[in-house]
Amino acid sequence: MKNKLRTLIEQPGIHAAPAVYDCIGAMTAEQAGFDYIFSSGFGIAASLLGKPDLGYLTASEMIDSAKRIAHSVSIPLIADMDTGYGNPLNVIRTVEEIVQTDVAGIILEDQVWPKKCGHFEGKQIISTHEQVEKIKAAVYARGDSGLVIVGRTDARALVGLNGAIKRGEQYLMAGADVLFIEAPQSREELSTIARHFQGTPLFANIIEGGKTPNLSLDELEDMGYKLVAYALSGLFSATQAFIECFDTLKKDGSTEHINQQLSFETFKTIIRMDDHTALEKRFGSSKKTD
Questions:
Q1: Residue ranges of the chain with pLDDT lower than 50?
Q2: CB atoms within 10 A of CB 279
């Protein structure tokens, strides 16, 4: 998976993908034809804990979630690993655990722990030097695994775009494979980043209603972006579907007339029921006596 992701990044053109928070989302994305996916810390916090993305998740919870998601599909996963969960030594442990999984890439950010969603107010950032050391530690810990490291900075909100760009330069020099400047606030800011880092694999994060304008993929590709994550689109859509389904059930006492409800047969296809039935037949589930 790791080599597959590196090949994807090296290919020309832009590559967009949704962020998911569970195996069903990952499998649905794969069946929709996406070449890779992201995991969403925001989505995992909401679905696993029922809490906002304010640093509630532990390293083990994030690693376990990423491990399950990556194993459920045959396309690469770039996993949100927040700040690496501590200092450079903690980053080494996090990365050592990740490289033993099917995860193809990770995102490491420069916020103070506990971190916040990049589109929330009140973020704080660590020093440039500290984040550089954490990226170097991640590069060391990945060894020859091929794990892709996405260096993320949340500095735009605190020190302005120029400060975020300066940090980005340092993170690339430290060994980050992809640069992610979080939450630029206009088309011009997105363009400025791309012009400054021409030839560098750049990451854009689109959140409906967030701080970054929801530009088309054509526009982002023209600017020079390589990877685009739709971080909360699936979470928002699934939550809206829950609301509509459960409101209808409460109101009508039935689910018969829910619009666009997924069929049982379609769901069995998504979870690859035929594959598991074949395994059941191959290894025998019926009780036999000798």
A1: none
A2: 10
How many Å apart are CA 71 and CA 244, to the nearest integer? 31
User: Considering only CA atoms, which of 123, 57, 45, 46 is closest in space to residue 84?
Assistant: 57
Q: Is the full-model pTM beyond 0.90?
A: yes
Q: Is 252 helix (H, G, I), strand (E, B) or coil?
A: helix
Q: Give every CB contact of residue 259 below 8 A, 6+ residues apart in sequence.
A: 244
Q: How far apart are CA 62 and CA 91, in angstroms?
A: 13
**What's the one-letter identity of residue 141?**
A
Alpha-carbon distances, residue 259 vs 31, 245, 254, 269, 276 (angstroms): 22, 8, 12, 20, 30
CB 167 within 8 A of CB 146: no
The pLDDT tens digits of the residues spanning 81-129 come to 999 999 999 999 999 999 999 999 999 999 999 999 999 999 999 999 9
Q: Which amino acid is at 183?
A: A
